[in-house]
Amino acid sequence: MIVAFSVQPTGEPSGPALARHLGEGADGASVHDAVAAAVRVVRDSGLPTRTSSMFTEIEGEWDDVMDVVRRATEEAGRYGSRVSLVLKADIRPGHEGELDGKIHRMEQALGELDG
Fold first, then answer.
1. Which stretch of DSSP H or E encloses residue 75?
2. FRET label pair with 73: which of 8, 40, 102, 110, CA 20 to 30 Å apart?
3. CA-based R_g, the chain, Å
4. What 3-state DSSP class applies to 49?
5. Of 67, 68, 69, 99, which is closest to residue 87 (Cα–Cα)?
6. What is the structure's pLDDT at 32?
7. Cα(39)–Cα(32) distance, rounded to whole angstroms?
8. Quick check: 3 and 57 in contact, CB under 8 A?
9. Contact status, residue 4 vs residue 65, Cβ threshold 8 Å
10. In the 8-state DSSP scheme, what is residue 46?
11. How far apart are CA 110 and CA 74, in angstroms?
12. 29-58 pLDDT, tens digit each
């Protein structure tokens, strides 16, 4: 399965060391530190992964992927008192390598259309 997810903590962090110190002109809505902490959990999992500007994708077996999503969400949760989790899953038993395979097939189709 492939899961695309994003996390966004809100509220006060669990510890003063996690409090953000925003400089002049900084965007108070930014959550890049929390997202980076969550992405570190995903990347350290050893599962195939890709991160874009809005989602992190991870591929593997159900239990493995959902465990990583849970741990990443908990890590982001240290940066706030509440976490919003958006998750989309492509569940296709018997298939692996689809994180890249789907992109490859789409690029191939584009090539066929262009020429």
1. helix 62-77
2. 102
3. 17
4. strand
5. 69
6. 86
7. 10
8. yes
9. no
10. -
11. 39
12. 568 889 999 999 999 999 999 999 999 999
Any bridge partners for residue 85, and if so which? Answer: 7
Strand order in the sheet with 56-59: 49-51, 56-59, 2-10, 82-90
Write the single-letter amino acid at 101.
G
Three-state SS string over 75-97 comes to: HHHCCCCEEEEEEEEECCCCCCC
Long-range contacts of 22-31 (CB under 8 A, 24+ apart): 31/76, 31/79
The pLDDT score that the predictor gives to residue 10 is 87
Instruction: Decide: 11 and 77 in contact? Cβ < 8 Å.
Output: no
- In one letter, which amino acid is 80? G
pLDDT tens, position by position, 51-86:
999 999 999 999 999 999 999 999 999 988 899 999
Confidence grade of residue 21 (pLDDT, cut at 50, 70, 90): low
Helix pair 62-77, 32-44: axis angle to 10 deg: 150
